[in-house]
């Protein structure tokens, strides 16, 4: 079904996100009107973001903020700086945020933002000006009770500090709850920076156990060595898993005995890439997800496991650290191969769970201990994991279908209780 006010798209994450919704709607027996409502974002803003460059020239970028749903609370989701950003991608990511927040039962709807910029091509001063301008443009539709951005691809805690400052200056007082993923000294939560990765690793360990794989000595490959991939590799490694391969935009490396993730992190900090790490072989980046390992963790961008490479995946378990790494066509191929896919809205939910904790702390001006944050994170991840496993078993469906159905059901329940539609 094509929503009325949005032109059809040919392929890509939005097609997949809507097809996943359609599957859940069919399973749940939802009316056409409600299906239509959930297919469409509640609010979308497209802005142009002019930048005065350090050399005095002017560049202009497209920016978006999409709020998919508010039925369970304020919209919530990251902000991405990447040249791949377009409105349909942001729409898909915002819809997935709605399901993710509902699945792990945090009191939010879903949103996402993006600016079509390559951050590597800009100085910190330019990135600060772009962030502040983008924030000023979307200011009327964000706020601690409305929509709360967080880091995603190409953004970080410094970006969040600039957003918080721009917003606070406009309203006339400091509002730490307008963003999460802030620096600790500005009200950020202990444990947020590594929360997504901690959740990915935790769920990967539960998945291994469920498939009878002993994590100690099991093997893993991780695509992406950024905020999610790097610490996911570290936590897996700390749990005894041999992380044999990792990749980033510039290259991929392999070591059969396992990579020393801490030293690799130091190397990446100084070299700007994982490529060239001593004691590891350079491999084709395209092969990282098709290596013969127990667990593959895509933790970079969407659409990397497709009909073109799914039949070559050898891992027994795929844990989606990234949002939307597996296309729907690939999903069907992986199911035929009996590869367990732990879907993004479950696997990478640790980030938004601790963002919720950060928001609670910011709004109360009180800081929890890191241990408390971690225990509560793991408890929520485990609850969501068991809910998905049980639902999938009861209804004979994949974990993605189960996770989406559970989430959609909760969102519809909120709509029903609030009476937001006839
Ligand atoms: N940050 C968070 O809290 C959350 C993030 N996510 C999702 O996780 C994924 C990664 O986000 P995050 O880690 O924050 O982003 P970052 O920008 O911190 O890191 C992205 C990483 O992916 C690498 N990369 C990009 N494209 C490719 C590619 N084609 N092949 C291999 N590596 C690639 C980048 O390489 P290089 O370093 O060379 O640029 C970088 O290492 C995204 O899908 C995001 O939406 C999901 C939940 C929460
Ligand atoms: O922490 C958040 O609010 C959202 C993180 C995010 O963008 C995501 O989970 O995809």
Automatic annotation (TrEMBL):
Annotated InterPro entries: Aminoacid_DH-like_N_sf, Glu/Leu/Phe/Val/Trp_DH, Glu/Leu/Phe/Val/Trp_DH_C, Glu/Leu/Phe/Val/Trp_DH_dimer, Glu_DH, NAD(P)-bd_dom_sf, NAD_bind_Glu_DH
Residues reported in the UniProt entry to bind NAD(+): 196
This protein's record includes keyword Signal: no
Family affiliation: Belongs to the Glu/Leu/Phe/Val dehydrogenases family.
Gene3D superfamilies recorded: Leucine Dehydrogenase, chain A, domain 1 (3.40.50.10860), NAD(P)-binding Rossmann-like Domain (3.40.50.720)
GO molecular function ontology, one term from the record: nucleotide binding
Keywords for this protein: NAD, Nucleotide-binding, Oxidoreductase
Chain residues that bind substrate: 76, 100, 355
Keyword set includes NAD: yes
GO terms (BP aspect): L-glutamate catabolic process
Domain of life: Bacteria
Protein name: Glutamate dehydrogenase
Domain Glutamate/phenylalanine/leucine/valine/L-tryptophan dehydrogenase C-terminal: 189-419
Site feature: Important for catalysis: 152
Record: active site: 112
């Amino acid at each position: 079904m094509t929503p009325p006010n949005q032109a059809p798209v040919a392929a890509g994450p939005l097609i997949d996100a809507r097809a996943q919704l359609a599957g859940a709607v069919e399973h749940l027996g939802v009316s056409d009107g409600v299906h239509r409502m959930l297919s469409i974002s509640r609010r979308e803003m497209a802005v142009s973001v002019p930048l005065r460059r350090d050399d005095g020239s002017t560049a202009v970028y497209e920016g978006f903020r999409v709020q998919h749903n508010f039925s369970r609370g304020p919209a919530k989701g990251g902000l991405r700086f990447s040249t791949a950003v377009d409105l349909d991608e942001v729409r898909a990511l915002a819809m997935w945020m709605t399901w993710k927040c509902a699945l792990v039962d945090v009191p939010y709807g879903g949103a996402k933002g993006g600016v079509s910029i390559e951050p590597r091509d800009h100085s910190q001063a330019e990135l600060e000006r772009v962030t502040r301008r983008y924030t000023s443009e979307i200011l009327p539709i964000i706020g601690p009770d409305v929509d709360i951005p967080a880091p995603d691809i190409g953004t970080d805690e410094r970006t969040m500090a600039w957003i918080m400052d721009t917003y606070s200056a406009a309203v006339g007082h400091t509002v730490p709850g307008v963003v999460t993923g802030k620096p600790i000294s500005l009200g950020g939560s202990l444990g947020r920076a590594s929360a997504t990765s901690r959740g990915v690793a935790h769920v990967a360990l539960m998945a291994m156990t469920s498939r009878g794989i002993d994590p100690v000595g099991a093997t893993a490959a991780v695509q992406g060595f950024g905020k999610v991939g790097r610490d996911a590799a570290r936590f897996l490694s700390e749990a005894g898993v041999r992380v044999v391969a990792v990749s980033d935009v510039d290259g991929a490396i392999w070591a059969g005995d396992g990579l020393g993730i801490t030293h690799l992190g130091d190397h990446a900090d100084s070299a700007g890439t994982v490529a060239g790490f001593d004691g590891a072989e350079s491999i084709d980046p395209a092969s990282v997800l098709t290596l013969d390992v127990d667990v593959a963790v895509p933790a970079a961008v969407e659409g990397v496991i497709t009909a073109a490479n799914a039949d070559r995946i050898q891992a027994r378990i795929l844990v989606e650290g990234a949002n939307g790494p597996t296309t729907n066509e690939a999903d069907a191929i992986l199911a035929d191969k009996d590869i367990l896919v732990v879907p993004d809205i479950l696997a990478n939910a640790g980030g938004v769970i601790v963002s919720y904790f950060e928001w609670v702390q910011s709004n109360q001006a009180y800081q929890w201990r890191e241990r408390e944050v971690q225990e509560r994170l793991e408890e929520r991840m485990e609850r969501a994991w068991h809910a998905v496993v049980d639902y999938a078993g009861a209804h004979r469906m994949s974990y993605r279908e189960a996770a989406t159905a559970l989430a959609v059901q909760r969102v519809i329940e909120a709509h029903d209780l609030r009476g937001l539609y006839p």
